[in-house]
Amino acid sequence: MSSIPSGHLFKNLSSSLVFLELTEAGLQGNLDENIFSFPHLQIIDLSSNSDLTGYLPKSNWSNSISTLNLDHTSLTGKLPHSIGHMKSLNSLLLTSCQFFGEIPPSLWNLTQLDHLGLSNNNFSGQISSSLSNLQDLSFLQLSSNNFSGQFPHSISDLKHLVILDLSNNKLHGPIPRSIFQLQNLTYLNFSHNCLTENVLWHNLSWENMHVLDLSSNSLQGELLPSICNASKLYILNLSHNNFTGTIPNCIVSSNLTLSVLDIQNNSFSGIVPKSFEVGNNLITLNLNGNFLEGSLPRSLINCMRLRVLDLGNNNIEDVFPHWLDALEKLQVLVVRGNKLHGFIPSFKGSSSHAFHMLRVLDLSSNNLKGPLPASFFKSFKGMRRLDGKTRLQYLNYEKPTFYGGFDYEDSIEVTLKGFEIYLQKILTVFTSIDLSNNMFEGEIPQVIGEFNALKGLNFSHNRLTGAIPISIGNLRNLEWLDLSSNNFTGRIPTELTNLNFLEVLNLSKNELEGCIPRGQQFETFSSDSFNGNKDLRGFQLMLPCNAHEERQEPLQSSGDGFEFGWKPVVLGYVCGAAFGAILFQVMMFTGKPQWVVSLVNDSPKKRKRRVRNRT
């Protein structure tokens, strides 16, 4: 760690210094405000020094500064009014700092600004209409702050805008139609605000658009075929709105560059687009939570780069799409809450590597039936143990650009630990199987015990039979296990007590018997985990186990000392009580035996003397 040098050497440089770049230099401590007054300094880049603290100066700004980059530092306070004195400034980047308060009016007088990045701070208030003064602005990033009020109409006057990001604020009202006509826009992100009213798609200029993200608002309207003119679109995210109508088929047939199509949680109707062209670039297709019906289009097998396919919570009626095994990169398959029916076929021969990258499989709440073929699960290599050195990261799509790139993070809705949860981000280590609420029958394949990376396993509300596989005890990363409302028989395997990370267990409403295993996590589960098994016993159900059934794990000491369980203690107590009773009877019928009297009444000194006399 270091700090910006001070003293005579640095002061001597002040008169001639033009370029100061100390990015990722490990700087710490307070920023020296004198830097900003160096007469010839043009570029200051102190970005990515997270321990650099302090405030911006309230005066003495040099007029020569053209670039000020303090991104990813810990500078704080309000922006001083004097910041407007830097008339030569064309790039002001203060992203991911700790600034707060309203933007000073003087900032809108910096008419030379080309880049303005204030994202990930705590700025508040309204975005001034004086923003239109910045006619040369091409990069405007004000996301992840607390800006409020009406959507700023003055933005439509900024004809040179290429990047526009106002996401994650509290803006409300309609989006001005004129904004959609800005010819140079490549990135437009208004997500996570309170925007309302219709979006008039025919006003949108699509010629250069790469990213359009209007997600998590209250927008309405129909998706018109004019969207198919977006020949350069990479990401289209309209999720969590109130859009209606059908999905234009041309959206997937005429645009081979489209990588992300996310329109989940709207009110789209009709069918899933049919014409996914050969050579398309789709990585994520998320249509969850709409009113789509019909069958699944076979042309989906042309999406050879597809990693996430989420068609859940619609009205799709079809058999299990076994032909999706051709998608070798598929990691997330969600078809929950539809009308799938029939059997899951066995996968043999050329299908031996089917779904080998799959990490999340959710077929819950359908009408699927029949046995669970072991061959279907055997190729799930993505659910086996992960490399211990794997860095935690999220499933996402990144596209590098001249402006630093843009990305999209996948999200899904899952039943996690018994609750319906919306995951805004999916960790690559998140691995789960959910086949609940179907009509599957037969036994659970033993191969399930090989999926050591599994976090969640849910087979509840089916017609499964047989014993709970002992191999499930090998799933050491398992955090929730739900086998409730089936017809499982036999004992609960004691191997399940090895699941140290298990937080939620539900084995209720089966035909299990015997004593509930003791030890580890099982001591924390309540009766809700075991109710509805009439021949099951254990302290959780207030039903004692028979002595010969109790299989208590030995108590573990904290060190290397003697270890013992409860049985030796009880045995010693019983033997001691019996010996005491016999001794009492002897004393009652024979009087006080002299050796007992001497044992009780003699002091240690007398006993020692007696022993000495005998010798």
From the coordinates shown, what is the CATH architecture of the domain at 1-173?
Answer: Alpha-Beta Horseshoe
How much helix, percentage-wise, in residues?
under 10%
The name of the CATH superfamily of the domain at 1-173 reads Ribonuclease Inhibitor
Major beta sheet summary: 19 strands, parallel
Mean pLDDT: 83
CATH fold label of the domain at 1-173: Leucine-rich repeat, LRR (right-handed beta-alpha superhelix)
What is the CA–CA distance across the termini?
80 Å
Structural class: mainly beta
Which percent range describes the beta-strand content? 15-25%
How many DSSP E strands? 42
Instruction: State the name of the first-level CATH class of the domain at 1-173.
Output: Alpha Beta
Describe the structure in your own words.
By secondary structure, the protein is mostly beta strands. Among the domains are: 173 residues, Alpha-Beta Horseshoe (Leucine-rich repeat, LRR (right-handed beta-alpha superhelix)); 41 residues, no CATH class. Helices cover 10% and strands 24% of the residues. It is built from 6 helices and 42 strands. The protein has a 19-stranded parallel beta sheet, with no helix packed on it. Strands 6-8-10-12-14-16-18 form a 7-stranded parallel beta sheet, with no helix packed on it. The chain is globular, with a radius of gyration of 35 Å. The termini are far apart. The C terminus is likely disordered.
